[in-house]
Amino acid sequence: MAQTEKYRASHTESYLQELIGRPFRDIKTEKEQLKRKAETLDQEKLSYLQSNYKTLVELAESQAATKALLSNTQEISVNIYGKKDVLHNIASQNQDFLSSISVHHQQALLMHRMQHQVSSILKIPELMDSCIHKEYFSEALEFQGLAYRLRDRFGSNAVIQDLVYQVETLSEKLSAKFLLQLQKPLKQYTLIKIVTYLRVTSKLSEAEIKYIFLFNAWQQLQTSLKNLIPLLDYNNPELYLKRYLQVIRDRAFSLLFQYQSVFYESTTLYTDPVSSTIDGANLPSNETSALPGLDRESLQSFSQNILSLFVNKIVKEICYVLEIFFPRIHETTARSSLLLQLYYCNQSLTKVGTDMTIHLYKILGKEWLNMLISQAEEKPL
Question: CB atoms < 10 A from the CB of 30, how many?
Answer without folding.
Answer: 12
